[in-house]
Amino acid sequence: MVTAEEKEAAKMIIALAGNPNSGKTTLFNSLTGSRQHVGNWPGVTVEKKEGQMIYQGETLKIIDLPGTYSLGAYSEDELVARNFLLEEKPDVVIDVVDATNLERNLYLTVQLLEMGANVVIALNMIDEAEGKKIKIDIEKLSNILGIPVIPTIATRNKGIDELIEKAVKTGNSKQKNQFKIDYGEDMEEQLQKLIKLIAEIPELEKYPQRWLALALMEGDERVEEILPKGVKTEKLLTQRNESVKQLENKIGEDAETIIIERRYGFAGGIAKETVTRRHDVEDRLSMSDKIDNIVTNRYLGIPIFLIVMWAVFQFTFTIGDPLIGYIELFFEWLGALMGEVITNETLNSLIVDGIIGGLGSVIVFIPPIFLLFFAISLLEDSGYMARAAYIMDRFMHTLGLHGKSFIPMLIGFGCNVPAIMATRTLDNKKDRLITILINPLMSCSARLPVYVLFAGALFGANQGLVIFSLYLLGIVLAIVMGVIFKKTLFKGETSYLIMELPPYRMPTVKSTLIHMWERGSSFVKKAGTIIFAAVILIWVLANLPVGVEYASEESLIGKLGNLIAPIFAPAGFGNWQAASALVFGLLAKEVIVGTLAVVYGAGEAELGSIISSYWTPLSAYAFMVMTLIYVPCVATIGAIKRETNSWGWTGFAVGYTLVLGWVMAVLVFQVGSLLGLG
Amino acid sequence: MKDNIMPLGLVPAGKKVIVEDLMGGHTFRRKINEIGITHGKIIKVIKNDSEGAMIIALGEGRIALGRGMSHKILVKEVS
Question: A254 exposed, middle or buried (CB, 10 Å; 0-12, 13-18, 19+)?
């Protein structure tokens, strides 16, 4: 993960660990500022964030580990964090601890210490703890754990300097922590037996022995995987099985439960000794609870949620639309200007139709996507997003999913690529797969231009209703497919919601902007290049074979369209123009509009009137239904492949949407024709 | 009612309970343990609509818990 070269360049490697919602990301942002890089941990889909900071003229490399409650091996996040600590051995680990929830956060701290890491605690959100009348004896906490504890307020950059100073000092000291929890006489006896056998295996030298012994007692399968093959390992495992059995016979509880409860007991004990709070405060409802009483109310919850969603889309489009207008104007102007300057016909066409047109179609996309992500980040940072998941849990349950799946579905209205990335928050693999599979049915913003074109050209005053019906159709199909998948492919799996509801917070502009930027720019990078390449490809196909009239029936585009057009005859749009537009829509759905403009030989302004003379409302509706459902765009297919890590499921997603789209389009056209709507 | 053990899902809002036992499989127990619900822990029920997920308080933390899960956590009321 960290190459020798990088290790050379950075004087010290600092890892950030902590629970979700502990303010870890905020701290990471204030440490590294803009010097950060988001990638993936090798082999898994967990995001890897690393950054740099300069401290006293030296470069420190900061690695943001995934937020976890523990370092078991039960989710990819936990495994990634743990492997990094075990294999890369960072010089120091800053453990970000939520001061308002010391006990639970200390559970992770204890595990970090047991792994032999050099830990410094950032006791974060100390202001909120004070606001809640929680007083923490910092010196005592530091003494009991034997590590530095620095109070911080990451959102206001407080305590950061001291934290880094202590972290560097800890990283430089060669001392190993001597931390140890007493697991009770019976357990300790068994642990000692295992440690003895572990010491005999030279390959395990680099791992902390006591930690290995504990993990083995917990039945941690991932740890068994790192054991080398051989007689000594077999001996170790036989002893482990023996120890677990002995312990269970003696205490009547399984070893794993004993260890977890002991750790919690330890964390709870420290919390009890170091935290004082006014008792009358504990029983009072907090401000957050009062807000929750309204926001999650069984009758008010859903209306409030709908209003919030309406506001999000209103915000995205009222601010976004004029911006889109300006961008379009700019590219038209640029195209006209270049058209005059460049006289060579082919070159002119390449630059004006191909490159400028292509760039324009990507950039036009940026305002709504960034605005949507801004709104979503705001909801997340304020704490409302978790409530939305809670409110939707009952509804999602009828799909066999839980509330958390709802958020990716919502983001899907903006763009399916980040939506599919957002399924990473789901820890049940099957839930995640279903959510990914039905996500492309949420009508993303790229499909809107197609609806606007056709509905505007053929449905006049009813166009709003027509567009709304398509969004609704997508949602209904997602529900139906979700239930079908749950009942057939993933039978018998119940999924549970368990989710922390962070207290409501005023989101800071900085962190909201950073979140927006992270998501938005990764979308532009991933989708933008594909859309741009698609437009160039269309231009090339429309100009080949050499000498053919641009985008005519004789061009490659026309021939391709003609070839597949008959398939769509039963759906009412069996012409080569529609067919080739659908082919290119594969690259990105809004490319359909551009392709239609090219094949009808019209500018986007005249396209509407041309469409209304070639199409009927019924065939147009069938075409829009097809556009909604058929095959996710290339960027989405790429995201599905990346997140499922399986070509099988990716192929399945492409296949089922194609069939479903065709069936629905044919159904619309045939039933409509029977009813005399044609 | 006082000494009766009952599933957490049946505890009305506002009541405080102590965790007596966790039922269900290995993965479930681990998950619930790791978020902080362990044997002997005091939980306050913040919200329980008798259907859908419930909200509980664990110290300062608030946790949303699905109905299925809440029925596998056995608790006893404390005064």
Answer: middle
Contacts of B25 (CB under 8 A, 6+ apart): none
Residue A395 phi/psi, 5-degree rounding, is: -65, -45
- Name the β-bridge partners of A59: A54
Q: Give the C-alpha distances (Å, rounded to integers) separating A171 from A18, A235, A664.
A: 18, 37, 62
Which stretch of DSSP H or E encloses residue A312? helix A301-341
- A397: chain B residues, CB-CB within 8 Å: 52, 66-67
Beta strands A275-277 and A134-136, pairing class: antiparallel
pLDDT digits (tens, 9 = 90+) for A73-125: 777 788 889 989 988 889 999 999 999 888 889 999 999 999 989 999 999 99
Phi, psi at A229, each rounded to 5°: -75, 145
| Residues counted in chain B | 79
ipTM of the complex: 0.88
CA–CA separation, B29 vs A115, rounded Å? 23
Burial label for A310, CB within 10 Å (0-12, 13-18, 19+), is exposed
Long-range contacts of A607-611 (CB under 8 A, 24+ apart): A607/A453, A607/A457, A608/A453, A608/A456, A608/A457, A609/A457, A611/A453, A611/A454, A611/A457, A611/A458
Cβ–Cβ gap B64/A256 under 8 Å = no
- Is A497 in contact with B58 (Cβ distance < 8 A)? no
Neighbour tally for A48: CB within 10 Å = 18
Q: Which residues contact A335 (CB under 8 A, 6 or more apart)?
A: A352, A356, A357, A360
**Residue A9 — very low, low, confident or very high, per pLDDT cuts 50/70/90?**
low
Residues of A in contact with B21 (CB under 8 A): none
pLDDT in tens, A533-571: 777 787 788 787 877 777 777 888 888 888 999 999 999
Q: Show the DSSP H helices in B1-79 as ranges.
A: 26-34, 67-70
- How many Å apart are CA A586 and CA A579, to the nearest integer? 11
The span from the CA of A676 to the CA of A621, in Å, is 14
Whether the CB of A389 is below 8 Å from some CB of chain B: the reply is: yes
Q: Which helix (H) or strand (E) holds A495?
A: none
Classify domain A4-172 by CATH number: 3.40.50.300
Residue spans of the domains in chain A: they are: 4-172, 185-279
CA distance A584 to A582: 5
Helices (H) then strands (E): counts for chain A: 33, 10
Chain A residues near residue B63 by CB distance under 8 angstroms? 498-501
And the tokens for A127?
Answer: 């202001």
How far apart CA A444 and CA A352 sit, in angstroms, is 28
Are the beta carbons of A390 and B69 separated by less than 8 Å? no
Residue type, A636: T
Give A520's contacts (C-beta < 8 A, 6+ positions apart): A366, A369, A370, A373
Write the single-letter amino acid at A648: G
Instruction: Name the residue of chain A whose CA is nearest to B72's CA.
Output: A496
Average pLDDT over residues A640-654: 87
* Residues A416 and A637: beta-carbon distance below 8 Å: no
Using the beta-carbon criterion (under 8 Å), do A494 and B27 form an inter-chain contact?
no
Q: What is the CATH number of domain B5-78?
A: 2.30.30.90
Name the 3-class secondary structure at B70: helix
Contact A561, A584 (CB under 8 A): no
Q: In the CATH hierarchy, which fold is given to the domain comprising A185-279?
A: Helix Hairpins (1.10.287)
